[in-house]
Specification:
Elements (H helix, E strand, L loop, with lengths): L3 E5 H11 L5 E10 L4 E8 L6 H4 L11 H13 L6 E9 L7 H19 L11 E8 L5 E7 L8 E2 L1 E5 L7 E16 L7 H17 L2 E4 L26 E8 L17 E17 L6 H31 L9 E5 L1 E6 L6 E6 L5 H12 L9 E2 L4 E5 L8 H41 L1
Parallel strand pairs: 1-3, 1-8, 4-5, 9-11
Antiparallel strand pairs: 2-3, 2-4, 5-6, 6-7, 9-12, 10-11, 12-17, 13-17, 14-15, 14-16
Helix pairs in contact: 3-4, 5-6
Length: 446
Amino acid sequence: MGRTYLVEEGIGQYLAELSTKVKPYVTGLLIGQCSPQRDYVIRAVRTPPKEQQQEESLGPPKLASLDEEWITTHASQVSRMLPGGLLVLGVFMIATPELAKDGQTALRKLIFSVEKSLSKRRLWKPAEEEVSDRAALQICSATKKVVCRTYDVQDPKSSAKPADWKYQSALTASWVALGCTVNVNIHIPLLATSPNHDLEKNTKNGLNRWSKQIEDSVFLINGQVKDEDTELLEGQKKFRGNTQPSTQFSDVKVLTQLCQGASARSTATVQVCSGSINLRGAVKCRAYLHSNKPKVKEAVQALKRDIINTLSDRCEILFEDLILNEGPQKKNSGREYHVLPQRLFVPVAGSSVMLSDYKFGDEAVGEIQERFVEMLDQPVQAEDMHIAEDISTVDICPVTDSPSDTQQAQLTKATLLLKLQQNMGLVVAAAVAVLASIFSFNYFSD
């Protein structure tokens, strides 16, 4: 028995419209949510066309001309715009009958390429019990025949399995939303031994350590700590027969553990640093969950991943912007302040789910609208954009090329003095102990 995909009804119309424009094929992404019982597809988004494709279309039709890098880049950009709980569930292809024979082979290759690209950016690891099947949807532009198969992306030798593709109206009308605000104050040292003072690599390493703190945090849902195996909506009223978007919102507080457990040993490390990066601000996070008896564990996991993703993604966006505007060879000579892009949310028509994006302060609204059309094939009205948070900053303290001989000598001398002081402390303590024992012996002898 294969997996079942419940698909938003409007996607059928979207794919039908795309099939009338096929020359000779079109590819795209399927966006939705996995669950143990079934998967939910809430959006289908075509791959943005490239200018070169117009010239390539003059030749004979062939799937060998698929631009794999372009499609995986699109998937990476789209994944940044998805709140917690949503992910790229698979890929689709609408092709002419003469290309149908090679369609599944091309889709299989794309599925594994997209998953590999997305997994490189993640600072979290999938759970062992997590669904790893991804959908490959193929539609014939002439006959409109739909073939849906799945591949296990955790198994490179995975073969195709049949899957059911079922349309459903108002699929996400009553999904559950969870939201929280997380205060961020992360100090990341830049080691003097770090080659070329790679700010991006150091930042990712620092965020990786921070992400483990988020994973270990306690989540209060509407002021309560709930057992992870209980139903999220337990005790809440359910709205039956309601086809209008009706969000059931849960407010979440994130309690980060300040110290390790009593059994864990803590050690101090002295490192020579040439600078530091400080991330400060408050980030708005959001996650969405299907309304079919969702578990607390699913909700907390979705929100954790959104917290980690949103900070990691906007740091990536900032460094991409710096490289674009300043060049990769720029050396940091003095203290720098940068503003992280702010998160904004945009509603999906006919759904309680909202998608997100990131906006720099000097970025025009028109640029955001263009990005939604290009990345998600969705027009957005300016009044529908909701900037969710205040400004967050990145403070990069001065970074020197390398410690000078004098500095290195001073550091070495300081380290030796520190060790000498520690050793002297031990010597004095030992001498006191010896004198105390002698005094005690003489006292009792007398």
